[in-house]
Amino acid sequence: MTTQSAAPAIDEYADTARYQRPWYWYDWANSAFVTTTATVLFGPYLTAIAKEAACPGLADGARCTTDLDVLGLPIDPGSLHPYTVGLSTFVGALLLIFVGAIADRVTRPARLMALFAGIGSVAASLMFFVEGTNWQLGVALLMVASIALGASLVVYDAILVRIAHPDDRDKVSSRGWALGYLGGGLLLAVNFLMLSNEETFGGTGQTVRISMLMAGLWWGLFTLIPVLGMWQMRGVEKPAVAAKAGVVGGTFRQLSDTFRHLLGLRQTLLFLVAYMFFNDGIQTVIGQSSLYGTAELGFSETTMLTLFLMVQFVAFGGALIFGQVARRLGAWRTVLGGIIMWVLVIVAAFFVPEKALAALFALGVGIGLVMGGTQALSRSMYSQLVPRDREAEFFSLYQALERGTSWFGAVIFGVVHQLTDSYRPAILALIVFFVLGGVLLAKVDMRRGIREAGNEVPAVV
């Protein structure tokens, strides 16, 4: 889907293009927490803390039969972490919509991003003090860090529209994602080496706590690069719908107008629904891959961690490759091709023999190549479909949709496993998310959607 558009008489991005280089670094900064803490270490660690609280002195591998008392509700210690993730996802999805409305009304967006990132990095660093049986602190810190991360990403993604010309947006978004995978992979590699020599750092628990502290500090310290680099960047004029209202006072009026506006942008709405499906498939594959590898294919946790490390670095290259392909074919075609690749990856995963190490790592290469590219280009595609001066509001819907619906795939995965007692048909069932997402995305008329949003149509869409 390509079209030529006349170049603007005045390049309105000339004054903001200098912010691209510092902007990239926030992907690098927050990916350390996402990779090391949220994805790899904190889940098993919080579960161990919860089991110690419910069943003191329980032998390794033994099943804890005592529930935790969480606000009067009996909770299985092994379910505490997924329930916490689910609750933070739900609460965050609601709050992010309001964050977007406020973000579009502040004059210095980088400073608001700094506030959210600062809260998140402090919460992530304080996870160092989660030990013994103090699971309550772990739950609270994970929720604060996760919600703050989502809020900072709403502002961060919205800034992309301000600093990159439509013709450059795929490239800029892809470079940010690539840097994020590289940064997250580097810190995880360091943490992996530390865990391989855990006695040096005081044992497994102490090593995990130090690793989580490192991730929190990494997030906070490297956030200084984009914040200082974009400190003077100004936001947009307040939308006319609430121009005379204050930051908080006009938020509800602005949100109401935004939802009415979205209903009128048929192509933007269609893209969001398509993204909901195929992104849910992506998130479920990422989230359940470790379980599939250990429980179904019989690999050790160390092998799966090594695989995850490799995927991070492959995804760095994958994001850059997809960005280059999009410059020639357009992001729309490239993402559709990526969705087809995801289907092939899932089919391949279904047929991977048990204990087949070479096949497992070949599968990891495929996941890494397609993972970074589809996520990066989805962000840049959506940026073309959001109305000018309402970027943060519309990206809050993007983040809320990503987080608020990402449990659908996990539920399907769990239900199919429960019915079949096998993870192979469970992983195969995820194809439906990519098929639905791909079919809906194929119906999106990007050129029409960009014009409906009042934006300039890039040379290649």
Automatic annotation (TrEMBL):
Listed name of the protein: MFS transporter
GO cellular component: a single term: plasma membrane
Source domain of life: Bacteria
Taxonomic source organism: Knoellia locipacati
Family annotation (InterPro entries): Atg22-like, ATG22/LtaA_families, MFS_dom, MFS_trans_sf
Record keywords, A-Z: Membrane, Transmembrane, Transmembrane helix, Transport
Membrane topology field: Multi-pass membrane protein
Keyword NADP: no
Phylogenetic classification of the source organism: Bacteria, Bacillati, Actinomycetota, Actinomycetes, Micrococcales
The Major facilitator superfamily (MFS) profile domain, residue ranges: 268-461
Subcellular localization(s) per the UniProt record: Cell membrane
Residues passing through the membrane, by range: 83-103, 110-129, 135-156, 177-196, 208-228, 269-291, 303-322, 334-352, 358-377, 397-416, 422-442
Gene Ontology MF term list: transmembrane transporter activity
